[in-house]
Design a protein that fits this description.
The chain has helices at about 20-35, 65-80; strands at about 1-10, 40-45, 50-60, 85-95. By secondary structure, the chain is α+β, with helices and mostly antiparallel strands. It has one domain: Alpha-Beta Plaits (2-Layer Sandwich). The chain is elongated, with a radius of gyration of 14 Å. The protein has a 4-stranded antiparallel β-sheet with strand order 2-3-1-4, with helices on one face.
Amino acid sequence: MLILGIKTQIYYPHIHSLKEKRKEVRSLIARLEKKFNLSVREVADQDQWQSFVLGASFTALRESEAIEMQEKIEQFIFSEVNGEILSFDWDLFSMEAY
């Protein structure tokens, strides 16, 4: 069993309040969860109103499946986010299945 972990830092220069930021974050999280069946959370910068760090995970059976999903998620984020992607990092973690 493999776990794909993704961390993305996003900057929104057009946002001017935490309320606006939360709306953008909730929308992006909902779209990612619905489209890719991921576990997604805001993992850092909760008190900053123009940036946030998003964490996502996906469980795969094969490395090829995890890499394919990483590419799809990266493409989605870069095309759908109405802000600047400051970083997109990912890693694979292996766990033995029982």
